[in-house]
Structure prediction request, 564 residues.
Amino acid sequence: MVDSRFVIVFQNSLQKFRHQQFSFLKGQNLNKKNQKMKPLKYFLTLCVALSGMKASAQIYSYNELARTFSQSGTTGSARFQAIGGSHTALAADLTSISSNPAGLGFYKRSELGFSLGLNSLNSTAQYIDGSTDDSKLNVNLPNFGIVFGGNGSYNNQSGDWRGAFGVSYNRQASLHNNFSYQGTNNRSSFVDYVAEQATLAGYTGAQLDGPDHWNSQSQQALTTEGLFYQAYLINPTKVNANGVGLPPYARYDVNSPVRQTGSYSSKGAISNWTFGYGTSYKDKFYLGGSLGLARMRFDSKNSIQEVYTTGKNVRGMTYNETLVTDGSGLNISLGIIYKPTNSLRVGAAYTSPTWYSEIKETFNQNVTPDVIGIPSTDNNGRPVTITSVSKVESAPNEFTYQLRTPSKASVGIAYFFGKSGFISADVESVGYAGMQVSSEELSASADANFKSKYNGRIKSNYQNAMNVKLGGEYRTGTLNFRAGVAQYGDPYKSSYDGINRSQLVLSGGIGVRNETFYFDAAVTHSTVNGAYTPYVIQRSTSDYTSAKLNNSNTNLILSVGVFF
Prediction:
């Protein structure tokens, strides 16, 4: 019977078939139904596609996505970023609205301001015998807002109390990333990973040709295994009495060294619209609270190209996948500041987890094989050679889930040297171990399995991190000089992969400030190590490897504002 996957080139015309096994196995034709992928099936497909990815801030599985969407760093105005983000005990800055709303109680007049940022990301990836450098530049809007202070009717100006209301936008984290890697792999290929997944699942050729893995009407795959099967890149090596292909699966040219070139890129941000109110009592004790409306957008693309250097049937293949994610959520912040003397301030702040009520993602993948010649048979059982196979695409799939990010708590102290400047220090705890995912889209039992699997991984892989920030400002007339340093703790347990992902952020800046306006500039620079594993071969840890990553991030921030 016809090996039905193959695209046969005969007498200068293409005839497309779909197969179930190697050319030396007998196949069978199946009837397919047009079937839309259900949420659970999509969830399982995405898990397979992402299960081999382990890196510092990329797409992995849902526990890793939770970490990606929970990250935060030095944010806010240029003034506060220049001093390393150590602003828990400071006040009267637009950043106070979201970081410690008690700082709004210091406002005695109104303020309007905004910031503009330029981010430069550079990465180096070492993979097997190759090293690759990449860079990415983007412009962003880190912060803007307005505070209504003074003696307006919107404030509480009764006796010893004074208050102010503020609205701000803050870019909490950038999700931009970019790196590539290359090397010659003598042990495995990405196709081996997919073949192993099909083998472990026990799929037959008939199943991979069936409606759970292939939509015959749209000619689109519904699973990763179905995608590579229809592209003739994985094949069953056994056959039953009825001529149906059976696992294990393998690829052509399995002994050929593989020249691998991969790339990853992402863009997006986590942002927060915050509405806050702060009040002071006798200019000694300050209280504040705010409501944050969070927004997250994340677009990523992963690609891997393989060339089989001694291939006789297949030259190689190119695989691409994209994930588009967006969601919205809520959080609250509470804070206090106490000023025992005019020179000393102490403060504390708490930011609740962000509860994302719905994160929606759309996943796509495709593979393009580069065929030399695949032996097959035509309708009459005569031998033919396949020399061209078209790109195979998956059906666009959507999935929604819920996420609870970590809570954050900080304490800080600031000491002022009269009008000459100040120094400030913060200690912040971030509860990464408390992240949670769930999905209301799944059935009760499937959701229970979803939570058990990924929340279990969160508890196993993550720990609460401690961040330490230190900064200061020196004033000379209207000109201010600032510097800071911040150490961000590693959210991963040491048992995860042994890589230290803590970050050291150095910062500095300058500003001009008088009674009517201000202009501030700041530069921050950080480096972080990570790893990226394109796929995992379960049969042997020596059959796959990771790209070691070193990322450096430099930000230029400019802030301008007026007082009124």
Remarks:
- The helical segments are 39-50, 62-68, 78-82, 96-99, 190-201, 205-208, 224-230, 444-461.
- The two ends are 83 Å apart (CA to CA).
